[in-house]
Fold this sequence. Notes:
Elements: H1 11-22, H2 25-37, H3 41-71, H4 77-83, H5 90-93, H6 96-124, H7 132-143, H8 155-172, H9 175-202, H10 217-225, H11 235-249, H12 255-260, H13 270-288, H14 292-300, H15 302-308, H16 313-323, H17 327-364, H18 368-388, H19 394-421, H20 424-432, H21 442-463, H22 471-479, H23 491-496
Sodium ion binds next to α2.
Amino acid sequence: MGKQSDSWGSRTGVILAMAGNAVGLGNFLRFPVQAVQNGGGAFIIPYLVCFVLMGIPLLFTEWSIGRFGGRHGNHSTPYILDSMSRSSWWKYIGVFGIFTNVAVVAYYTYIESWTFIYVIHTLLGTFTQMSQADVSGFFVHYVNLSGSNFGIPFLPVLVYVLVLGINIYILSTGLGGIEKVAKIGMPLLILFGAVLAFKGWTMGAENASPSFPDANAWDGINFLWTPQYSSLLDPKVWLAAAGQIFFTLSVGMGSIQCYASYLKENEDLALNSLTSGFTNELVEIVLGSAIVIPIAAGFLGLDWVIENAGFGMAFQTMPYLFVQWGEVFGAIAGICWFGLLFFAGITSSLAMGTPWMGFMQDEFGWGKAKGALSFGVLALVMGLPTILFYQYGYFDEYDYWAGTVSLVVFALLEMILFTWVFGMDKGWSELNRGADIRIPVAYKWIMKYITPILLLLVLTAALITPQGNDWAGAIAGLVNGEGWELDSGSLISKVSHEELKLHLINDPENALLY
Ligand code: PHE
Ligand code: NA
């Protein structure tokens, strides 16, 4: 085994790399959409509870598992998990921690490549003379590979390969390269985000479109931040909140364990893990909620936002809205937006590349260049079908399995391993060795009982989601003998019959109701 172990250059480097890992497209694209679709202020309380009761315990666990593994010269979850118990099947569970990263990175990098090309199009002024329908249609053509992008066929595929190539190159330079990207990317991201968030907070009603005279950015902000307690009993909202917490903190994937395996033996876990976790939350809650939603609400009104909240907003609506701010500020805003998405994306996709490289090192003693290249080839092979068949909605299905279900399953299993098999007492002292702060003892109990139980609940709820997500109705149905009808979105139904959906605004003519 090749054990010439790399390690992080400095504490700032660790924190920035870990924060870069967590802060990603999830903060700016996924969070606002999840929040709006789940009732705005209704979403926030379950979201924060999930952060405290699942997110933080999982961060503690994954950082501890990772540093423990690194001390024994292991950098990938199959090897690390194997070293934590006597039974031999944990190493197969550890394979999740490699596979999921490669599966997710394959399409994550594709989105990253959109942000890259959108920076270039903003610089070229591509959107300046376009109507909203044109801007929206531009994106649809792009992802369907049917547009004439600079007259180059299959340009999206080329851009994808290029962005993947940038990732491969940085990965081949090792932890030093990752740290450097994080040190440049994170501050820029925050700066760009602050510029846009400032606009989001101050724009009020002054930019309302003539077709939506009542539009006001503040409606968007109020919608997100007025807590509504009624949703606390709605399992659907809890599921969505837990899913978002997982995705945004990068837990349940094996990438935090891999980064943490390069920590020094007695390097602090407690404060470092909380710092990077809270940085992610700060970026998500403060910046993530202050950009897309208020800006779109300011132009088009809150009703439009609620009706159209989706992934497409970032690419199909924002470039048009920016242009309305005039040539100079519009271009600045566009570059800030797509530039911040690019930096958020790349620091996360790098994090998804390292587990595979760590495994190749553990297993075959492969060096960085070989590890990075093999990772790139694998991601390409997995990513190409999703890209070429984008319009068939394969993408969403793929995201659901690789980016949601497998995270929860893996998180549950590793929590059980850490707190029950490895043992909570041992785990607690591992977590606290070298700690710069004292973690409240309550967390020992939360990690051992509450988090696994919550994870089990989330998984069960996903398995048996009732028709139309109507839990009260389903329970009533059970009581009066009508039975429990499964929703087509429940895990069980998904396994038995597929129903593919495309969640983009695929009809550019009606993209905006002008
Ligand atoms: N946390 C990242 C985001 O919010 C996604 C990610 C998941 C990155 C897992 C690395 C590992 O976009
Ligand atoms: Na995140």
